[in-house]
Amino acid sequence: MAITALHAAASGMRALDEKLNVLANNLANVNTVGFKRSRVNFEDLLYLVRRQPGLQNADDRYLPHGIQVGMGAKVSGTQLNFEQGSPEATNRALDLMIEGDGFFRVLYNEGGQDVTSYTRAGNFTLNSQGEIVLGNSLGSRLDPSITIPQTAVEIQVSPNGLVQYREAGQPNLTEAGQIQLSRFVNPEGLLQLGKNLYLATDASGDPIDANPGEQGTGTILSRHTEMSNVDPVRELVQLIFTQRGFELNAQSIKAADESLQTVTNLKRY
Fold first, then answer.
1. Residues 6 or more apart from 95 whose CB is under 8 A from it?
2. Are the beta carbons of 115 and 146 closer than 8 angstroms?
């Protein structure tokens, strides 16, 4: 019946609408520091089995195929792509980029409590207390916290995450703290919070904490930020494919509707 085609095409339009939302979000964040693009995975729905494959016919031969009519498609999940973004030189001492698979640890305030969250964005700055914080709308503090005194005139961050500063009139550098990174077995299982932050989940596994350069976390490149890994050309091509697929499903609905109209009009004859 054409009613099956209506439902199948409608499910396809719903799924493609979700893909359109994801593509639009990717493009909207093309200039967001540390942003990782997502892709949409699809799966087919249940099937109406009108004839089971492998049944015997009148000649006792097994039929090579059956009659199975699909009920459409749905989104099975959105999948993060943690491919390394391109570096951008900024010449700011607290602009940091991870060359590897690690994440910076920062504190996310939820319900009055500090919760450990993770980020690939390295656009750090100092707050009024001299603490190193992420340059998002929350000013999330680096974990463990590192404080730079107001008398510091120079800040240096080494590839292994050692933060040092020099005060006016002093020839030597003073150690302020050690940046730690975290790595996950399945980073695609992280929960996206917005504000360039992620939360660990059962799907991502427990974080593996280490100093930069250890346990596969990667090293730190100072005075650089990691740009978004969104490829605008690729996203625009996918946008066109999605639009065309949406139009084809709309045509399927139109064809099914015309078939139902024909069946309805049979009573006039």
1. 122, 123, 124, 222, 223, 224, 225
2. no
For 42, counting Cβ atoms within 10 Å of its Cβ (0-12 exposed, 13-18 middle, 19+ buried), the class is middle
Strand partners, 192: 198
Q: Which string of b and e fits 83-106 if b means at least 16 CB within 10 Å?
A: ebbeeeebeebbbbbbbebbbbbb
* Identity of residue 60: D
Domain boundaries, the chain: 2-82+231-268, 87-226
| Cα dist from 194 to 82, 160, 225, whole Å | 16, 28, 18
Averaged pLDDT in 10-residue chunks for the chain of 269 residues: 82 94 96 96 89 80 82 93 96 96 92 91 95 93 94 95 92 94 96 95 96 95 97 96 92 81 70
d(CA 227, CA 242): 26
Give the DSSP per-residue string, 137-172: TT-PBBSS--B--TTEEEEEE-TT-EEEEEETT--S
| Stretch (H or E) spanning 86 | none
Q: For residue 212, how far is the Cα from the chain centroid?
A: 23
Q: What pLDDT does 56 receive? A: 79
Token reading at 41? 């995975």
As given in the structure block, the two tokens for residue 91 are 């010449």
Q: What is the pLDDT of residue 238?
A: 95
What phi-psi label fits residue 130: left (phi over 0), alpha (psi between -120 and 50 degrees) or beta?
left
